[in-house]
Amino acid sequence: xxxxxxxxxxxxxxxxxxxxxxxxxxxxxxxxxxxxxxxxxxxxxxxxxxxxxxxxxxxxxxxxxxxxxxxxxxxxxxxxxxxxxxxxxxxxxxxxxxxxxxxxxxxxxxxxxxxxxxxxxxxxxxxxxxxxxxxxxxxxxxxxxxxxxxxxxxxxxxxxxxxxxxxxxxxxxxxxxxxxxxxxxxxxxxxxxxxxxxxxxxxxxxxxxxxxxxxxxxxxxxxxxxxxxxxxxxxxxxxxxxxxxxxxxxxxxxxxxxxxxxxxxxxxxxxxxxxxxxxxxxxxxxxxxxxxxxxxxxxxxxxxxxxxxxxxxxxxxxxxxxxxxxxxxxxxxxxxxxxxxxxxxxxxxxxxxxxxxxxxxxxxxxxxxxxxxxxxxxxxxxxxxxxxxxxxxxxxxxxxxxxxxxxxxxxxxxxxxxxxxxxxxxxxxxxxxxxxxxxxxxxxxxxxxxxxxxxxxxxxxxxxxxxxxxxxxxxxxxxxxxxxxxxxxxxxxxxxxxxxxxxxxxxxxxxxxxxxxxxxxxxxxxxxxxxxxxxxxxxxxxxxxxxxxxxxxxxxxxxxxxxxxxxxxxxxxxxxxxxxxxxxxxxxxxxxxxxxxxxxxxxxxxxxxxxxxxxxxxxxxxxxxxxxxxxxxxxxxxxxxxxxxxxxxxx
Length: 651
Description:
The chain contains 21 helices and 22 strands. By secondary structure, the chain is an alpha+beta fold.
């Protein structure tokens, strides 16, 4: 079931993908600080007793608690363009009641401030958010929570063993630097970011538990095996022993053996499909699996403790849509969705599937970007060394009974129905990108956000609440906050665009005003002063039996966070496209990339999710509107010279 607030497990990785990391030319694993003095100005100090990776962590600031009036006024600003006058008056009254002297909001604010001030409290929302948005979320990980990167082709490696071996060498280089603590932190505008979530990148696994899932980090010193999946079967291969690790040529040889061992027949009982189930059902199925035979516990532990999973699919995706489907879901059988996964296909194409609960997208984005750089430079094998016989791959098998087989059959039916109910398309717009947009003196990201608003407005004749996630990793344990992209300024722009009585000069002026408003909100959100996390925190401070404040029961609240547009951007020369699922029944998953001379999207929708469009493919419809909006906005901005007093956009 798709929900409003509770479906935010899919929304942790949105705008945060836009990494400000810059690699030092001498090391692919070392980001270069763009303005080191900002660390000193903000009071961030290096801890000489900590590792290189964690040396700033203790002095990062705590997430602030915004002022109540600041949040509620900003909330009203975002609601205004979405509702009529009568509904807005009702919302204003609910806000006034909430914020009045001795009002319920005042008391909740005091409780939240007290929580934030507790000794040792690093981040007042971190525990709540992890549980609320991820671990207590019971819908399947596949489609509802996971995300996917489609990696660019490697022209030198056109088969699965060679491509998988090169990617795995990159994984081992990154892992060694990470687990030793030698990895350099990420920086945003010169300031270091929180790095605690990185520890869950390798040798970690999410576990299904009622009512809240858990996650385990296994000892990387004693678990140096990688899990391979082929034909729905599991294999493990030791790849690190002490200071030694297999070379890409050695791994290619052993991966070819795994493919040979798997044969031509799929396992008839694909245990991996269970990880695509509803989390409560998977909890029960896991218990049944462990009870079926004592050996299953060790088999499951070997999978869960592995460095990472490599799914060796027997398909050969050609089209962008085929690649996207393989990356996002595959057929569900040759996957283990509770772990981070690379997928490598028969023709050498590759992708990455991210488990979202344990970390957001910037760490895995950096992983894939770094691996791509290492392979492109030919340095992925630089530290490979192995003495003695090569380790042999071992199949991991389960002993099943009728109870487990029934869970597997049911999971197959549920997954096929889930995947079959989704529509997906991709758009690669090659006419222009951020280089031209910057000449218009508009922020490229804000420009594309307004483009999506225009496309949605033309398709639906109304504005759509839009979620663009913004990272708040400048704070301890920071994850994300929401940039609400709909504003009065955005509404004025999209409503004016097709009005023949409004001049192009005025339309361009309205676009720039909308972009400025969007950029301002994003900056405030990045500094911990958004609306949504604060309102969630206040709601969590309610005690049992206390009345829910009207601000939360007011229809405008549900409407304004009914995220019909779930958006986020990422751009990498090593990732051709990427995406995730929609978060409400009638909504769109709308991931995008803004390259120098290209704009890309992956668009997902629930089939028949909006009765207005019947059985029509809404992903394809929005794609057509995006193409028109991209073309029309360019024509508009090229027809009007940019004002001389506006500086050229940088971001």
